[in-house]
Design brief:
Blueprint (H helix, E strand, L loop, with lengths): L4 E6 L7 H18 L5 E3 L19 H15 L4 E9 L2 E10 L3 E7 L14 H4 L8 E4 L2 E7 L6 H9 L4 E5 L11 H13 L2 E5 L2 E4 L2 E4 L3 E3 L5 E4 L6 E6 L13 H19 L4 E5 L4 H14 L4 E5 L7 H14 L2 E4 L3 H10 L1 H4 L6 H22 L1 E3 L5 H6 L20 H12 L9 H5 L19 H13 L4 H6 L4 H13 L1 H4 L26
Parallel strand pairs: 1-2, 2-3, 7-8, 8-9, 15-16, 15-18, 16-17
Antiparallel strand pairs: 1-14, 3-4, 4-5, 6-7, 9-12, 10-11, 12-13
Helix pairs in contact: 1-2, 6-7, 6-13, 7-8, 7-13, 9-11, 15-17
Length: about 525
């Protein structure tokens, strides 16, 4: 049987840069066909031409004309047919679409997404907000082989799959930008494998890869034959070209890395893409000697290289010798720039300035927050001067309950751990240490009780429930939408549940002012969980 080679291009495109994206599509497609002249089709990800998610850029009046110009450029300069994701307008209605473009002939087929997931299942791309659903399946033919097109959530539409099966389709080609969610790396693969086996159809899956603001697209393109067996797969989180012969009987084995490894690499990819895409010279952070900043520093050094990272220890009266020793040791181990800038002088200046206002008031969290805000001012000044983005170090557990200082330790342009629960912070730190003989995070940072060191003897456990309990409550309330009674019924202590839920609700105003960070759980604050600041329920 003759070969029928198709290439799935797993790559990343810049949101809004339509002309640059078109040039990249042309260069990649022509390179693939140069390497394999028999290639019949090159498949690019959902919304490759515009980049995703574009959100309100889709409302720009010049969008349609820029897309049309890009399509003409593709028609003239491509050496092989391509299937590419793009936005289209039809009689004023906007669609999430795929276009089959043939060199010198132009657009031969346009397919519009048919089905959108429920809002509760939205992955943060908000497709249903900007696009309308269509009702016209599209089948393309490649050397006599019929291929049905799917886009986004279309794979969940049973009637569409049955239609393709009735039309004699032999392969489904599915483009959907697959957003990473910890523990669900296999979800798309297993879902499409089930479809292949149920409908006796081969399935090709294509996704973009890389970080885009608060989302990380995991890539992981693959081809499954009609028996449900894997034919080929691209790696997670890496740009790749995946050649697939639709007439081949070859099968392959798919191995999945452990959860800690994947999540850590997601954070690395998120930091790298955010810093590089936004033109920062590097990154800096406040290194406290605690677990969160230590993990953030390791991620930043792995993402950018130690020469592009700077760590600042800002001690105060309550900063222990252990914290300073461990911070200096970690910075030296990683090879990042490090210095100490004590905050006692700016703290004294502020308290002197405010002495009249504070004269009849007891010392309280105001003075604790003032310490954190002195540190925030220092970090932002260094960022302004040197062009490095400040990485905030709050984790999801603290972000949920507001256990952080607004305009203090919350300052920054990006927060890698924003959606990482505290229990997972420890798991990731231990995993990273296990990757080499010399630990990059001093072990006593991991083993000591967590503390903000803003007051004598201060420990997180004095203000919050045990992190295992806290994280379970956050998971059930934020990600599973369970109410207090349901959470208590699961066996968690009622007093702790009510406290955590109350703190989550009252700290929405803080979260909406915090640095954005990558969504990695089923529901991330800001990415796909949106609540009013002022409300009663």
């Amino acid at each position: 049987m003759a070969h029928l080679p198709v290439v799935i291009s797993q790559t990343r495109f810049t949101v809004g840069a339509i002309e640059d994206n078109a040039r990249r599509i042309i260069a990649l497609a022509n390179e693939y066909v140069h390497q394999a002249p028999a290639t019949q089709l090159v498949v690019f990800p959902e919304q490759a031409l515009l980049g995703a998610p574009a959100f309100d850029l889709l409302l720009r009046s010049s969008l349609a004309s820029r897309v049309q110009t890009a399509l003409e450029q593709l028609t003239e300069q491509l050496a092989v047919p391509v299937l590419v994701g793009l936005p289209t307008l039809d009689k004023g209605i906007r669609f999430n679409s795929l276009a089959l473009i043939v060199p010198q002939q132009g657009v031969q087929h346009i397919y519009h997404q048919q089905h959108f997931a429920d809002q509760a299942e939205d992955d943060g791309q908000a497709r249903a907000v900007y696009f309308s659903a269509a009702a016209k399946p599209v089948v393309i033919e490649l050397q006599g082989v019929l291929v049905g097109l799917l886009l986004g959530d279309d794979y969940t539409c049973a009637s569409l799959l049955e239609h393709y099966q009735q039309q004699g389709v032999q392969w489904l080609l599915h483009c959907a930008n697959n957003v990473f969610t910890a523990g669900e790396e296999r979800r798309m693969y297993l879902a499409l494998q089930h479809i292949a086996q149920r409908h006796n159809l081969g399935v090709l899956h294509c996704s973009t890869v890389g970080g885009q603001d608060a989302l990380v697209f995991q890539g992981g393109a693959f081809a499954i034959n009609a028996s449900g067996a894997l034919m080929a797969a691209a790696p997670l989180l890496k740009q790749a070209a995946l050649p697939v012969d639709l007439h081949s009987a070859a099968v392959s084995q798919l191995t999945w890395p452990q959860e800690e490894e994947v999540l850590y690499q997601v954070l690395v990819r998120a930091v790298r893409d955010y810093v590089h895409s936004n033109g920062f010279a590097g990154a800096l952070l406040g290194l406290s000697g605690g677990i969160d900043s230590s993990l953030t520093l390791a991620v930043a050094a792995d993402a950018l290289g130690p020469e592009k990272v700077r760590a600042i220890m800002m001690p105060f009266d309550y900063t222990s010798a252990m914290s300073k020793e461990d911070a200096a040791l970690q910075a030296a181990t990683l090879g990042v720039a490090y210095e100490e800038i004590p905050i006692r002088p700016p703290f004294d200046s502020f308290t002197k300035l405010l002495a009249a206002n504070f004269s009849n008031a007891e010392t309280d969290t105001t003075e604790e927050n003032l310490q954190a805000r002195c540190r925030g001012v220092i970090l932002m000044a260094l960022s302004n001067k040197h062009g490095q983005v400040v990485l905030a170090c709050s984790n999801k557990s603290e972000t949920a309950v507001g256990y952080s200082t607004l305009y203090g330790d919350m300052v920054g342009g990006f927060c890698p751990l924003r959606d990482v629960p505290k229990t997972w912070v420890y798991r990731l730190a231990k995993w990273r240490n296990g990757q080499q003989s010399t630990p990059v995070i001093p072990w006593r940072v991991i083993e000591r009780p967590p503390t903000a060191e803003l007051a004598p003897g201060q420990l997180d456990q004095n203000s919050l429930p045990d992190y295992a309990v806290l994280d379970e409550v956050v998971h059930r309330y934020v990600e599973l939408h369970q109410d207090v009674d349901a959470i208590v019924a699961s066996g968690l202590p009622e007093e702790a549940v009510r406290k955590v839920v109350r703190l989550i609700d009252r700290n929405e105003y803080k979260r909406q002012q915090g640095a954005l960070g990558p969504k990695v759980t089923g529901r991330g604050f800001g990415a796909n969980r949106r609540y009013p600041v002022t409300y009663r329920w």
